Amino acid sequence: MHNETPLKGHISKRFDHELEDIRNRVLTMGGLVETQVNNGLKALLESDSATAKIVAESDYAINSLEVEIDERCVQILARRQPTAGDLRLVVAIIKTITDLERIGDQAEKLGIFELELIDEGASSSQFVKLEHLGTLVSNILHNALDAFARMNAEDALLTIAMDSKIDGEYEALQRQLITHMMEDPRNIRNTLRVSWCARALERIGDHATNICEYVVYLVQGRDVRHTDYASLTQTNDD
Amino acid sequence: MHNETPLKGHISKRFDHELEDIRNRVLTMGGLVETQVNNGLKALLESDSATAKIVAESDYAINSLEVEIDERCVQILARRQPTAGDLRLVVAIIKTITDLERIGDQAEKLGIFELELIDEGASSSQFVKLEHLGTLVSNILHNALDAFARMNAEDALLTIAMDSKIDGEYEALQRQLITHMMEDPRNIRNTLRVSWCARALERIGDHATNICEYVVYLVQGRDVRHTDYASLTQTNDD
Questions:
Q1: Does B94 sit within 8 Å of A84, measured CB to CB?
Q2: pLDDT digits (tens, 9 = 90+) for A155-183
Q3: To pair with B233 at 20 to 30 A between CA atoms, which of A85, A108, A138, B124?
Q4: Which candidate, B195, B165, B202, B193, places its Cα nearest to that of B178?
């Protein structure tokens, strides 16, 4: 297939360069999103209003990167007409940035909830309950971005398996919060806010899982959405 | 650009046919999703356990359509290498089916929450509070699918403007539910379930809005995500 005329070589090189450029922008976007999530967690756990403000107002950079990368993907499809692996990469990128942008939306909520709490002069002591869930979510996002950066399907499948731990922790936390609401009804509004943060974190885990699914699809050419992951990977439970 | 040799005409025709076939599958998927949402609402509002069961178990058809359409889109990109409007249509379809699938996930939750309630032998009387929000969401979804089917950017922009009404109704409902939880703490678990259903409905509205944004992008070639819609359309407030 590789007809290495000088012209063809030149075109391929420019194409590779463009594709690499898009990939780098996705990694930049991933880095911004990861910072937003970690800052959101910091704002909640340390009652840090300055960081909360940054998180609540930094979404625009992520949004504009999404629109920009999306446009570049459409342009590369139109002008370069990639096939096979390159085509799947572009499609996976189009999907990945949608999930990254929505992770950004969820992270923004963490900052907004913290600011609301501070505005009302309410205690943020309950937010410490989010620490374990927050660590799990921060880890799954980091691993998902790593799997994407290195296009490693094996790591992506292991990362997908982490999501059930997050779901378990989320369910346990919700039960705990409901009990707390029954015991202390006057504080329901604040407890609900903790619950909404937990939900935002859980959804970040879901989006990270989606990104891993695109990586598997890209590398192995198989679609693992809506399948039982247990049959796809042996998770190490040590 | 249109070089109408018989061969070219033949290829275009087959291409148009393939594209039309994909578009029809998206409309089928949209129809399934709409049925799921309306059945989910029926199950909640009429305490209808048979319908709730159908909703809780019908997600697989939507999921498998998503995977199938996605694969057809990649194939058409690889084999036909569409450009301009056709390319944007394929990209818009790839995005649209992701949102349709997620609407299906949210509808499934409505069925599951209703079944949980029945299992616990709890009263479903509070679910009537969801009626107005449910009607708004059912309408926005219907309009979004209509705008997609007819590729009508004007209708899409008008539909996007409907989402702020949904957000307002959602916020009002949440405040009402919080008050109810404070007044009747023993019933918190059930009231929370109503709140989760409201959240699922609100997210369906968001996904419907996303679909409308893809239609605008497709027809007008401009990206309206992350912009102020008020500046794009005059809504009729009569």
A1: no
A2: 999 999 999 999 999 999 999 999 999 99
A3: A108
A4: B195
Q: Which residue has the tokens 């369906």?
A: B204
The answer as to whether A1 is a domain residue is no
Q: Which residues of chain A neighbour B178 with C-beta distances below 8 Å?
A: 188-189, 192
Closest-CA residue of A relative to B73 is A91
A contact set with B (CB within 8 A): 60, 63-64, 66-67, 70-71, 73-74, 77-78, 81, 83-84, 87-88, 91, 94-95, 98, 178, 181-182, 185-186, 188-189, 192, 223, 225-226
Q: Has residue A238 been placed in a domain?
A: no
Alpha-carbon distance A10 to A16, whole Å? 10
Q: Nearest CB to B81: which of A66, A81, A192?
A: A81
Domain range for residue B58? 6-231
Q: DSSP assignment of chain B, as one string?
A: -----HHHHHHHHHHHHHHHHHHHHHHHHHHHHHHHHHHHHHHHHTT-HHHHHHHHH-HHHHHHHHHHHHHHHHHHHHHH---HHHHHHHHHHHHHHHHHHHHHHHHHHHHHHHHHHHHTT---GGGGGGHHHHHHHHHHHHHHHHHHHHT-HHHHHHHHHHHHHHHHHHHHHHHHHHHHHHH-GGGHHHHHHHHHHHHHHHHHHHHHHHHHHHHHHHHH----TTS-GGGT------
- Domain of A155, CATH number, reads 1.20.58.220
Write the ipTM: 0.81
- Interface residues of chain B, partner chain A, Cβ below 8 Å: 60, 63-64, 66-67, 70-71, 73-74, 77-78, 81, 83-84, 87-88, 91, 94-95, 98, 178, 181-182, 185-186, 188-189, 192, 223, 225-226
What residue ranges of chain A have pLDDT lower than 70?
1-11, 222, 227-238
> B25-29, B188-192, B214-218: which has the highest mean pLDDT?
B25-29
pLDDT at residue B171 tops 90? yes
In a domain, B164, yes or no: yes
Set of chain B residues whose Cβ sits within 8 Å of the Cβ of A67: 223, 225-226
Q: Which of A98, A37, A90 is nearest to A66 (CA)?
A: A98
B59-69: per-residue pLDDT in tens? 899 999 999 99
Confirm whether B218 is domain-assigned. Answer: yes
Contact A77 B91 (CB under 8 A): yes
Q: Do B63 and A87 touch (CB under 8 A)?
A: no
